[in-house]
Design goal:
The chain has a 5-stranded antiparallel sheet, with helices on both faces. Helix content is 41%, strand content 14%. A hairpin with a 2-residue loop joins strand 2 and strand 3. The N terminus is likely disordered. 39% of the residues are buried. Helix 8 packs antiparallel against helix 11, helix 9 packs across helix 11 and helix 11 runs antiparallel to helix 12. The chain is α+β, with helices and mostly antiparallel strands. It is globular. It has 2 domains: 132 residues, 2-Layer Sandwich (Phosphorylase Kinase, domain 1); 230 residues, Aminoglycoside 3'-phosphotransferase, Chain: A, domain 2 (Alpha-Beta Complex).
Length: 382
Amino acid sequence: MSDAAEVRETPTLTRSDRDPEELRARFGEWLTSRLGADADTVMELLKAPTSNGMSSETLLLDATWTEDGERATHQLVARVAPPPTAVPVFPEYHLDRQHEVMRLVRELADVPVPRTYWLETDPAPLGAPFFVMERIEGQVPPDVMPYDMDGWVRECTAEQRQALVRSTVEVIGRIHGIDRAEERFGFLDPDRSASPLRAHVEGQRQYYDWIRGDDRYPSIEAAFEWLEERWPEDEGEAVLCWGDARIGNVMYRDHRPVAVLDWEMAAVAPREVDLAWTIFMHRFFEDICTQFGVDGLPDMLRRADVVALYAQETGHEPRDMDWYLTYAALRHALVMARVGQRQVHFGEAEPKDDPEDLIMHIPTLRAMVSGTYWEALPPELR
């Protein structure tokens, strides 16, 4: 088996116990109740969540109805909160907040966010809350195989990848450019007793407490201590942060974003939270390539390039990036710790005496805390 094949066969850890035909029928009934019997709604379920559940479940639908005497087919996506049986990655799924963030960003910024149609907070129709948005066609950099290992991003020319990166950083800058973020997006953090960055990190501490149960993750705890000891002197302006700011959550057409997706981690926080996540997530995939002896895309999303592009786009010079990159590694370690628990739960991994052994990039987090991660890279990647 080749290294690439080993990566391809890595479990996706996605679960759903919802029956596709039942989902189609129940969604059709709900849509008819929304539009009225005169709309003569006809719906086709193109994809049901037979293999998702790590995040919100996704339904792809085509729905035809009559409105104002005109009959048209609409391409839709329904995002459904995962059931507890999916052992979800996050303790709560605030789809109402996601829906409102997407609506506001589309209204307030030149950012390609899909149009949102309806929010349903009553779990009765589908068994969980959900919202419906428009479906946009485009290419998404895949996680499996990692886009820097195989697929369309790897097949692009260097110039095309540069265009992709530049246009993505531009979009992030426009998100951050929405003024009065703390006022307009205050619903993302109802507790205003702490600064936005303090509140963000405290949320991650609470997430850690939920994940770990009776276990301990010493490297994660050491990272929290490292961050506290080196807290930024000036936290800077709080902006709307996309939260999961990475190219794997963007649809592209001609190497430019046509849909910015997955807003469940959105928060009001310093802009470096997003920038560091964007850089770190590419380093995560590059480290996977190194682990399997595969040439990745080291010239893409380099730390210095992203920082320079962002400064050029926004006029803001990112600061304390070592701190924020370590924080990104910590945040990702928390997610991967939960993913490791799901692997064990679903029989896709054996339990470990040390639960940190289930976190793929735990050596990266340790190296960042010790100050050796960036030094080990070639100078042009630091």
